[in-house]
Design brief:
Structural class of chain A: mainly alpha
Order of helices and strands of chain B: EEEHEEHEHHHHHEHEHEEHHEE
Number of domains of chain B: 1
Helix content of chain B: 25-40%
Number of strands of chain A: 0
Radius of gyration of chain A: 24 Å
CATH topology of chain B: Rossmann fold
CATH superfamily of chain B: P-loop containing nucleotide triphosphate hydrolases
Largest sheet of chain A: none
CATH architecture of chain B: 3-Layer(aba) Sandwich
CATH architecture of one domain in chain A: Orthogonal Bundle
Distance between the termini of chain B: 41 Å
Bound molecules: adenosine-5'-diphosphate, magnesium ion
Order of helices and strands of chain A: HHHHHHHHHHHHHHH
Largest interface: A-B, 30 and 38 residues
CATH class of one domain in chain A: Mainly Alpha
Oligomer: heterodimer
Shape of chain A: globular
Strand content of chain B: 15-25%
Number of helices of chain A: 15
Helix content of chain A: over 70%
Shape of chain B: globular
Distance between the termini of chain A: 9 Å
């Protein structure tokens, strides 16, 4: 498998997928009951004002025509205006998406590093007290949803012990760094403002841990069982019998084949975090895309709904391509035989 | 030609499984002298591979050894600390596993795997192997693999079964070894290449003066290749003799059954001649484990496992038919 053609093919397919997704969400956003214009203007707005807004948003036209108009706008780089924030959806996304991106980025680091290392150590010390403790906490981690962790962590580390801040992206009153990427941690580093970096970073930790705990626990379990399955294979016994030291056998010959399934699962979990982070973002007053997404959905803010879902679609597709490349790199059976790609 | 290389004494191996224990090895006694070629025959599931894994100390986590000793050059390897064990492994034993597909790591190239095997084969003395690549190339060449340079960059999946098996043999060639264990090296291969692979193994041990344990389904193979044969049944060595002697005059009813049933060409279960199956290891018969299938079983057989006794010069049998100087009870 050559990387270039593979990525190109996947990108081509992705365009069709995004196209389909846009039709689907466009229709769903309009078919669900409720009048967006009425909801935006409130119950006491005069009928003719509501009607004018409906016309302004083309909501009085047939669906097909609406979609065509929307596509025309998208082709010109517009996603329409949000009825909730009264700003262009594009501008909202530009503000909220980087916030969620840095939050999920840190979450992903916790999931990957924590999940793999806990899984590897548990497999290495299988059936010892360490393994049992990790197993117990993994089950706890899996069954307790992220928002529950958010509340617990906030109470413990924010209010009982004042270690971490519990609200927003920066301390109240602090002026954000000059926008480059929109991610405060990165922008403050690019501006050379380490004090700001630290402030933004500390604000990410609790929500990131809350989001990471369930998928990390899952990843640890999968890594452990994948290692345990491979541990008893003849190829591992053969290496040990030939005198290859344990650390090399475990860290190289056992780890590489065992990472394939956890990586696939982790990638899906990380992609899903973009969407289900809304509770945690809400609890920590974190102005992210997930929170924005829920807000616009509850208000039937049609343009914003479609915009948010399209961004999530792009995130999913990108992560899928990345994970396919990683798996193909890890597993020559896929790379050489082109299986599953 | 007489110094003992390997001596397994009264080895028991159990597997902890869900809801119980499989008592697989039931007091195995087995030895190999330096430079000797020994055969190990017995039907599938009787514990041949388990015995070898115990000897290499690569049993799965859920296995335990409640009793028994394994001496390699007089050292009890079950009592070695991890340093001594690493040292022994670096120079001592090698095994060609039953299934060449699972014996090679699918996500590393042959070259990567050979490299580490050669690197650590010098033992924990830490001496560096200067020319790992040359050693690897000549080992692949000696194992009759075409285009060794390209082989180094190949993944196991790119090779045929016969080539994989030869790669496994190349692993053994690349490292200086006292003992080569070949676990059914030809069972999974085409009839046409079985001979080549067997000849390679024979050449390898003869050239290095190493010992060989050849595990096989095929009695014919054991007859061609080995000097002495052990017959294993359900976790016990039930007969041992010089190869020619065993084929001439088998004592144990199980061995007699094996020899009577015509061995199939490509291996596989050869015990069709003996009705019944290997006992369940969860609740094995209390006495001789073969008793339930034995046409000559009598009272003592269900009480305790018969010990291995000499019935001839260098010919041992574990069977009550021949205990107490009693000749063949079958005629009584
Ligand atoms: N990893 C394992 N877990 C549980 N039982 C095992 C395991 N390996 C072997 N056994 C048991 O040991 C018996 C003997 O297996 P094995 O040594 O592979 O036989 P052979 O090599 O003679 O065909 C099997 O029938 C099985 O019941
Ligand atoms: Mg076997």
């Amino acid at each position: 498998m050559r990387l270039g053609p593979f990525v190109l093919r996947r990108l081509a397919i992705s365009i069709f997928v995004l196209f389909g997704l846009s039709i689907l969400i466009f229709l769903i956003a309009r078919i669900v009951p409720g009048d967006p214009a009425r909801m935006a203007l409130g119950p006491r707005a005069p009928v003719d004002v509501v009607e004018r807004l409906r016309q302004q948003m083309h909501l009085d036209r047939p669906l097909l025509e609406q979609y065509g108009l929307w596509l025309w706008e998208v082709a010109h780089g517009n996603l329409g205006d949000s009825l909730v924030t009264r700003r262009p959806v594009k501008q909202d996304i530009r503000e909220f998406f980087p916030a969620t991106l840095e939050l999920v980025g840190l979450t992903a680091i916790f999931i990957i590093v924590g999940g793999i290392s806990l899984g590897v150590i548990s497999a290495r010390y299988a059936n010892t007290w360490f393994d049992n403790v990790v197993r117990l906490f993994s089950y706890l981690g899996i069954v307790t949803p992220a928002f529950a962790w958010a509340v617990i962590l906030m109470l413990l580390f924010g209010f009982v012990w004042h270690i971490f801040p519990t609200y927003g992206r920066l301390t109240e009153g602090v002026i954000p760094p000059v926008t480059i990427t929109g991610m405060y941690t990165i922008d403050s580093l690019l501006n050379g403002r380490f004090d700001l970096f630290w402030d933004a970073f500390m604000h990410l930790i609790l929500p990131a841990i809350a989001l990471a705990l369930p998928p990390m626990s899952q990843a640890a379990r999968i890594t452990r069982s994948s290692m345990a399955d491979n541990q008893n294979k003849d190829c591992i016994a053969s290496m040990i019998a030939y005198g290859v030291p344990n650390r090399v056998v475990t860290g190289k010959y056992l780890l590489k084949p065992s990472l394939i399934s956890p990586i696939t699962v982790m990638a899906l979990d990380i992609a899903a975090t973009f969407g289900y982070a809304f509770m945690v973002e809400k609890i920590f007053g974190f102005p992210g895309l997930a929170r924005y997404g829920i807000q616009v959905m509850l208000n039937k803010d049609v343009n914003a709904i479609v915009g948010v879902v399209m961004v999530l679609g792009v995130v999913f597709i990108t992560l899928n391509i990345v994970v396919d490349i990683i798996v193909a790199y890890l597993d020559p059976r896929i790379r050489l035989l082109g299986r599953n790609v | 030609m007489s110094e003992t290389l390997l001596d397994i004494k009264n080895l028991h191996v159990w597997f902890k499984v869900y809801g119980g224990v499989l008592k697989v090895l039931n007091g195995v006694n087995f030895n190999v002298k330096i430079g000797e070629k020994v055969g190990l025959v017995g039907e599938a599931g009787c514990g041949k591979t388990t015995t070898m894994k115990a000897l290499l100390r690569v049993l799965p986590n859920l296995a335990l050894i409640p009793e028994g000793d394994i001496f390699v050059r007089g050292k009890n390897i079950l009592k070695l600390n991890s340093r001594e064990l690493a040292d022994l492994r670096g120079r001592g034993l090698s095994m060609i596993f039953q299934d060449p597909t699972s014996a090679l790591n699918p996500v590393f190239t042959i070259g990567q795997q050979l490299d580490d095997i050669i690197k650590y084969s010098a033992g924990s003395s830490g001496q560096k192997v200067a020319n790992k690549k040359n050693i690897a190339l000549s080992a692949l060449h000696e194992a009759r693999l075409p285009d060794p340079e390209r082989m180094l960059d190949s993944y196991p999946i790119q090779l045929s079964g016969g080539m994989r098996q030869r790669v496994c043999i190349a692993f053994a060639i690349a490292t200086a070894r006292d003992l080569l264990i070949a676990d059914e090296p030809t069972t999974n291969l085409d009839v046409t290449i079985q001979d080549q692979v067997l000849r390679l193994i024979k050449d390898l041990v003869e050239k290095k003066g190493a010992s060989l344990i050849l595990i096989t389904h095929s009695l014919g193979l054991a007859r061609e290749t080995t000097e002495r044969v052990y017959v294993m049944y359900a976790g016990n060595m039930i007969e041992m003799a010089a190869t020619s002697l065993l084929f001439k005059k088998p004592f144990h009813p199980y061995t007699q059954g094996l020899l009577a049933s015509v061995p199939r060409l490509s291996g596989g279960g050869f015990a069709e001649g003996i009705p019944g199956r290997i006992p369940n290891y969860r609740n094995p018969p209390p006495g001789c484990r073969f008793a339930p299938r034995c046409p000559y079983a009598f009272a003592p057989c269900t009480k305790a496992m018969p010990p291995l006794i000499d019935v001839d010069d260098g010919h041992q049998v574990a069977c009550y038919l021949y205990q107490n100087g009693q000749e063949d009870r079958r005629n009584a």
